Amino acid sequence: MEALFIFILKSSGLLAMFYFAYIFLLRKETFFNSSRWFLIAGLITSVIMPFVVYTKVIWIEAPPMPSPVPVITTTANTIESIPTSNHDVVAYKPQYKPTTVTVVEKENFEINWSLVLTAVYGIGFLAFMIKFALDFYSLNAVLKGKKIEQQDDFKFIDIKENIAPFSYFDYIVYNSSLYTAAELENILEHEKVHSNQKHTVDVLISRVFCILFWFNPIVWLYKKAILQNLEFIADSEASKKIADKKAYQYTLLKITTHETCVAITNHFYQSLIKKRIVMLNKNQSNKRNYWKYSAVIPALGAFVLLFQIRTIAQEKKQNEATVTQRDTIKDSDETIKITKNTTDKELNELTGKLKTNHNLDVVISDVKRNTKEELTAIQINVKSDSGKKQTIKIDGDEAIKDCELAIGTDENGAKSININTDRNFKVPVIIRNERVIVRNHGESDVATPVPPAPPAFPTGPLPVAPTVDMSKMPKPPVAPKNPKDKVAMQKFEKEMEEFEKKMEKFQPNIDAMTAYGDAVSEIMSKREAIYEKEMAKYEIAMEKFNAKMEKFNYDFKFSFGDDSKDYESNMKQYEQDMKQYELDMQQHAKDMKQHAKDMKQHEKDMKQHEKDMKEMEKQNKKA
Fold first, then answer.
1. How far apart are CA 214 and CA 15, in angstroms?
2. Triad 347, 350, 354: Cα angle to 5°
3. Residue 70: φ, ψ to 5°
4. In the chain, what percentage of residues exceed pLDDT 70?
5. 324 DSSP 8-state letter
6. Would the pLDDT of 436 be above 70?
7. Measured between alpha carbons, how far is 279 from 276 in angstroms, rounded to an integer?
8. Is the model more confident about 78 or about 552?
9. What string of DSSP letters covers 436-462?
10. What are the pLDDT digits (tens) for 404-432?
11. Label partner for 42 (CA 20 to 30 A): which of 91, 276, 295, 494?
């Protein structure tokens, strides 16, 4: 059930991505056929892409096998490592006996939210399926028993009902008594385009998606965009075959009186007459703007990188015969013995003695004692003048056993301290009830990865909106209720001629607003394209950074331990870097808010223009 919800979320996100790409980049372009396939591709991609998963395997180093247990032996001047018998090694055994606990479970009533959500989705799905079936029944009722006139590949049906003309595959339905011969010719040319290009398939596909994703408001807006683009295609193709474009526009205005339409069809009436007239009179878009269709590719790439990559960590096979490299002392200068009765004063004197005699920086910490004031734990951090670092830690529940530290020169000529062991440890081991850890850190510190800086959204001035008083826009005349009233129709035609003259004078204002909108859209499109490229690079850099951080944490804990001061200091540095990263992200959020503010101002200007145009359309609908 969780997989189904994840699929729905991913599919809805992809739909939203294609929809907003169309709205912000392609809606005002005249590439109507290309936009048709772009929108259909968005529907198909939203279903297929969630199933495309790339598996990424990260190979990590397996923790090395514990080294054989060493023994401690000493001589007067030198330190030697010799094998030990098995009785020197004490295995760890639990010191407590488990207590049997009986747990009485109480049955609590819990709501199965998965079942509830499934039920809600199923009810909605069933309701819209019933509505879909009723629409088919209504369509069949209109077509059933009607006389069909076959012409070429089209089937014409002349009905008597007051229904707006529509096409359904190769059927073209209309009421010839409502229109003049010229108007009917314009209508049929329009519907022929729908039938020829199989626009009914687009309508049915969008309807199926509305049933599957009925809860998502984006899918309903997506369906509206598809239907709107189909009307643009039909208007564009039909106007090429019609000599008088103005007569075609008058036909559009007249059809607005017929609001009864049949669902799941391409009907001539649509509640976007204003946009259709504007697109009819708009100049053809420059072919260079075809690049906008590729703007969605980086977003798809980001979707795959963020949600469709499954990372699997696998350990590299390690040769069991590999033995930890020995860190031996070539020449021993001095040996220091530490027993359970060594006092804090003696330990303090030891650090000064090592600094004076051997130039070793020694820090003794984590000193613990029992009630008898005997040492039970101690940690010794050593740094030589050559930069070599070592950590020796002994920790146990009982008093420590006597041990000796050898100070001398290693094979590389650097000062070094060695506990009486056969080899250096990389993991804790038990030696006579003591946990002994010896780490050799080498000459270089582990560097913390630096997070990449996020990109900022491009800023800059926008064009000034033209000052157009839309209240001065001429209002269209109201069509007579009775189309057969010749006197009223003659009066209407005269009023339309006057309206046309006034619109020609007012047309420069509309062109100025259209040019302003196109200019702003072009500027914002360029900025968004730049920002998307930078964000794609940033996301790739963040993936690499996260991978480095995983490896860094693994290696650092393995080499230094969770309780190491070096580890703590590096973690503090990492926290500081992350705080700086958060500040960068806050600045990025501010930049995005400023961008949203600019877009709101632009949207406010365009809404005023839309408001004035809707007022004109509203008066026309009242007829």
1. 13
2. 150
3. -85, 175
4. 73
5. P
6. no
7. 5
8. 552
9. EEEEEEESSPPPPPPPPPPPPPP----
10. 777 777 666 666 777 664 334 333 433 33
11. 276
Place of tokens 């094998």: 83
- HEC string for 199-243: HHHHHHHHHHHHHHCCCCHHHHHHHHHHHHHHHHHHHHHHHHHCC
539 close to 306: Cβ distance less than 8 angstroms: yes
- Return the sign of the alpha-carbon dihedral for residues 143, 147, 148, 149: negative
DSSP string over 393-408: EEE-SSPPPPEEEEEE
Contact 416, 410 (CB under 8 A): yes
Most confident of 203-207, 351-355, 362-366, 531-535: 203-207
8 A C-beta contact, residue 483 and residue 489: yes
Torsion sign across C-alpha atoms 172, 266, 616, 470 = negative
Contacts with 260 (C-beta within 8 Å, 6 or more apart), sequence order: 161, 162, 163, 164
Q: State residue 317's pLDDT score.
A: 59
Distances (CA, A) of 548 to 58, 435, 451: 11, 31, 10
Q: Are 56 and 29 in contact (CB under 8 A)?
A: no
Q: What percent of the chain has pLDDT over 90?
A: 14
Q: What is the mean pLDDT of residues 140-155?
A: 88
- Find all residues with CB under 8 Å of 377, minimum gap 6, and list them: 366, 367, 368, 393, 394, 395, 396, 400
For residue 42, the model assigns a pLDDT of 94
b or e along 481-493 (b: 16 or more beta carbons within 10 Å of the residue's beta carbon)?
eebeeeeeeeebe
Could you say which DSSP state residue 23 is in?
A: I
Collapsing DSSP to helix, strand or coil, 371 comes out as coil
What's 24's DSSP letter? I
pLDDT score of 96: 40
Q: Would you give the DSSP letter of residue 178?
A: G
Least confident window among 127-136, 253-262, 347-356, 426-435: 426-435
Residue 220: predicted pLDDT: 93
Q: How far, in Å, CA of 62 to CA of 69, rounded?
A: 20
Yes or no: say if 335 and 432 are a contact pair by the CB < 8 Å rule: no
Each residue's pLDDT tens digit, 529-568 = 888 888 888 888 888 888 888 777 766 665 555 545 555 6
pLDDT tens digits for range 199-234 = 999 999 999 999 989 999 999 999 999 999 998 898
Residues with Cβ within 8 Å of residue 141, at least 6 apart in sequence: none
In this predicted structure, which of 190-199, 477-486, 533-542, 569-578 has the lowest mean pLDDT? 569-578
Residues in Cβ contact with 151 at an 8 Å cutoff, skipping those fewer than 6 apart? none
Residues 452 and 541 sit within 8 Å (Cβ to Cβ): yes
Cβ-Cβ contacts under 8 Å for 615 (sequence gap 6 or more)? none
Helices (H), 281-422: 296-307, 344-358
**Radius of gyration in angstroms for the set of CA atoms belonging to the chain, rounded to a whole number:** 40
The two three-digit tokens of residue 227, written as one number: 């239907």
- Please give the DSSP secondary-structure letter assigned to residue 94: -
Asked whether 525 and 25 are in contact (CB, 8 A), the reply is yes
Token pair 């145009």 in the structure block, residue: 613
Q: Read off the tokens for 289.
A: 């703007």
Helix axes 217-241, 181-196, angle to 10 degrees: 120
How far from chain centre, in Å, is Cα 44?
Answer: 19
- CA dist 478 and 476 (Å) reads 7
Give the distance from CA 182 to its chain's centroid: 53
